[in-house]
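hey
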């Protein structure tokens, strides 16, 4: 596997592959890789001739500086995992390489980028669109792989792809979970063992709500999940929204959308660590 640090070296390698008619899979990551990322990489390796994994902790998508500072950085271990998964290129540029000048572009795809994470982390999706649009331009992939754990992110990126006319396929990949049900996340490594056990209560509560939802309204089910999660002393819900799975607009009735999804954000433990998850009703 080649570890590439510059855009020009990346382009040289990919131009050769493209001229040879090869397909290119891109897996954008911020590093601190885990089995969830590995599943995306393996899928890309299976479906494309060349797989590029970007490992870039994008500062523009962090509205909270402490969150950025605390974010785990594990490039050596990341590269070993990527090599074992069969990726051909790890693209690990510096911030100056990606942003030689401050990126002043503004992206706006309401309601996908204004609700939930968009409301609680102002500027977050703008930063995601800035970096992902750059990665799409550098790599020009045939397909790009994103984990469904960041359910809202995929909806925003789909809108951006449509808006900017990128010729590529977005491939959403299912959440990978621990046996306890906790969704794998780079942030889980910041949890103590006790906090990790507490965090498993998040998905469990949403799962219990599937039964509850059969004979209760959307509003009652939403409150049911919030109360269950908050009943745990280590957990505090920031929001639980029950939305149209495509537009991400709130639903009032279960029949308001062809598929309905519950999206949650919870603060866990003393630090605290912010965790997100979702479930389909
Ligand atoms: O999902 C992530 O890890 C990031 O938001 C992404 C897509 C790599 C952009 O920095």
């Amino acid at each position: 596997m080649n570890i590439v640090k510059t855009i020009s070296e990346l382009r040289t390698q990919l131009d050769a592959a493209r001229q040879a008619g090869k397909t290119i899979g891109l897996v954008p990551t911020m590093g601190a890789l885990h089995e969830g990322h590995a599943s995306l990489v393996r899928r890309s390796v299976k479906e494309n001739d060349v797989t590029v994994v970007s490992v870039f902790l994008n500062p523009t998508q962090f509205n909270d500086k402490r969150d950025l500072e605390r974010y785990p950085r594990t490039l050596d271990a990341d590269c070993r995992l990527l090599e074992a998964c069969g990726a051909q290129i790890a693209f690990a540029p510096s911030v100056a390489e990606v942003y030689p000048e401050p990126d002043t572009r503004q992206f706006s795809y309401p309601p996908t980028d204004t609700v939930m994470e968009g409301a609680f982390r102002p500027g977050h999706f703008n930063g995601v669109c800035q970096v992902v649009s750059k990665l799409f331009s550098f790599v020009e992939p045939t397909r790009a792989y994103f984990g469904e754990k960041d359910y809202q992110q995929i909806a925003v990126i789909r809108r951006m792809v449509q808006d900017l006319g990128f010729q590529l396929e977005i491939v959403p990949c299912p959440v990978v979970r621990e046996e306890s049900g906790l969704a794998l996340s780079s942030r889980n490594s910041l949890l103590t063992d006790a906090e990790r056990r507490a965090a498993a209560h998040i998905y469990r509560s949403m799962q219990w709500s599937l039964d509850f939802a059969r004979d209760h309204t959307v509003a009652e089910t939403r409150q049911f999940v919030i109360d269950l999660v908050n009943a745990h002393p280590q957990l505090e819900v920031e929001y639980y929204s029950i939305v149209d799975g495509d537009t991400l607009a709130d639903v009032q009735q279960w029949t308001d959308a062809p598929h309905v999804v519950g999206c949650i954000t919870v603060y866990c433990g003393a630090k605290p660590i912010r965790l997100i998850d979702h479930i389909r009703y």
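The first strand starts at residue 2 and ends at 4. The first helix runs from residue 7 to 19.
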